[in-house]
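Exercise 7.
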Amino acid sequence: EEVALGCPVNNLMQEMSPLDADFRAALNRLVEDWRSTLRHGLAVAREQGQLRSGVDLDAAALFLVSSVWGCVGLAKNLQSQAAFCTCLAQLEDYLYSITTEGAG
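Solution. The predicted structure, written as tokens, is:
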């Protein structure tokens, strides 16, 4: 069912952003909060020596948000839980690749 309907926030962004600037601004604040939270988590991981020093935290946070939404959107379009799981597994591989353990 979750795959069938997609992400409610992403659905709203896709449908409403071109139609209502105030609504778009409110949705953009949600996205920015998500990006900021991810960036903070990545920064903490770096401080703890778990994340490679060369990782651009802002770019990585943006990539994570866009990747998750891409996974959800594609799974919704395909109506495929398997596609969603495969996509998330690849995202997990990316996250591992930017850790100090996964580097190299």
